[in-house]
Amino acid sequence: MRVLGVNAVFHDPAAALVVDGEVVAAAEEERFSRRKHGKRPVPFSAWELPELAMRWCLSEAGLEPGDLDAVAYSYDASWCRPAEEMGLQDPWDHLRTTYAEKVAGFLTTALPGLDRDKVVPVRHHVAHAASAGLAVAEDSSVLVLDGRGERASHLAGRYVDGKLDVLTTTDLPDSVGLVYESLTEHLGFLRSSDEFKVMALASYGEPRFADALREHLHATGDGRYVAREPDWTRFAPRRVDDGTWGGAHADLAASVQLLVEELLVDLATWLHGQTGDRLLTMAGGIALNCVANSRVWRESPFEEVWVQPASGDSGTALGAALQVSADAGVRPKPMPGADLGRSWSDDELASWLRTARVPFTTPDDLAGEVADVLAADGVVAWFDGRAEFGPRALGRRSLMAHPGRAENLERLNDVKGREQFRPVAPMVLAERAEEIFADGPFPSPYMLFVHTVRPEWRERIPAVTHVDGTARIQTVDAERTPHVAALLEAFAERTGLPVVVNTSLNTAGRPMVDDPRDALELFGSAPVDVLVLGPHLVRRADAFAAA
């Protein structure tokens, strides 16, 4: 059973390939096109398919379009309602429905040889649910929250033997995601793109507006919620993104963040009351809110919480493919990890460097040489193996630095061109994580939860300790990520710290580095001391001396 999953209608267009229940490949279109988020989430862009990602997925498996048994499209036009009936102010929303109704024609044009009868629509929130509930080995409760789908903004259900039982949904216009997007815009950031900045800014504020806002954003006790956009100007004027931040704007961010956390805990608690399951799986854009996820883990009755690393709309490409496979009687295999994108052999990477006329070495002890650079306070661009699927850098396309120097937070934000209130994250050896961090799940391989930095470690790793004493950690397993694990061990030998700074390998407004050309362009334009390209090492001093 060969199923290509496609997400396109809103934002973060992506493709994923599932063969006989196994996830073979998955990638966002932005990694190929170099357009952040692939496109803007407006109705006029709904027709834009992830053509490059689709073709790559097929080539990765050696397939032609005619070899596919199904193409799963993560939006079902037959489930739509007119925007005005749903209380949405979007006079062009009907274009999304029109494009979705005609998507089989668009897909057969993009993939010559595809039988249009093989195109199968999957409801948007079912695709989100499947990306989580069908990506794990056991039956689970599943919780989805985002901006919107065809007519809803939320789904709560349960997967048993690969089949989804939908227990409840919240219909539009109530939407936690749309409220958070609206706040993002009010705070001077880019809507449907910069919501993570609001979460970061919230740590600098006090939730003094929470009581007044609660009437607009609260759970209703029956597994659903009210979520309506308030008049934000009652609490703080519209912010212009001029580089300043704090005050009432941070307090407003903190207030909404608190209410979102409370709402998620309530929804998860209600869901557990219906299912009694041990495991909760989560997806949808709200599931990228790692602070809220952590409260669900701590305060809900579930023993374990698993969050899809590509919880945003890109993940619906994977979920749609998994759901169509399951509906055909092929039980999906557990998702092996987030490293589902492109990769190159060692020889191919060396060829890229020779073509670019960049001097490089291939050290016998790569981990040791890179650890020396980090210990001497150098910044390292790290490119290794298959690219990550989803928004987190997880040791495949990462920017690394010494966590023991507080000034490295400001330094890396300058390198990337980011706001200074943005934190950077630690990657840590899995077997050492619990001695340094607390109050969160272990292992935590996908940076989807925040942990408390133990007090005795805060002064030792200040660059990765956020203003509220927390860190969004990634635990590193030597079996899954052997090269990063070797680097962490070598760095610990030199410094006593089994932790390094890890942030995504990109600069502001650009997608994460994906191919070797992207890595070389970043290395040439940003103050990075060393580029690691697979087993090869490029030192900035050597490269520029040669130039």
Automatic annotation (TrEMBL):
Q: What's one GO MF term for it?
A: transferase activity
Which family, according to UniProt? Belongs to the NodU/CmcH family.
Transferase recorded as keyword: yes
Q: Which InterPro entries match?
A: ATPase_NBD, Carbam_trans_C, Carbam_trans_C_sf, Carbtransf_dom, DHBP_synth_RibB-like_a/b_dom, NodU/CmcH_Carbamoyltrnsfr
One Pfam family linked to the record: Carbam_trans_N
Residue ranges occupied by any Carbamoyltransferase domain in the UniProt entry: 2-322
The chain positions of domain Carbamoyltransferase C-terminal read 371-540
The answer to whether keyword Zinc applies is no
Q: Per its record, how is this protein called by name? A: Carbamoyltransferase
Q: Which UniProt keywords apply?
A: Transferase
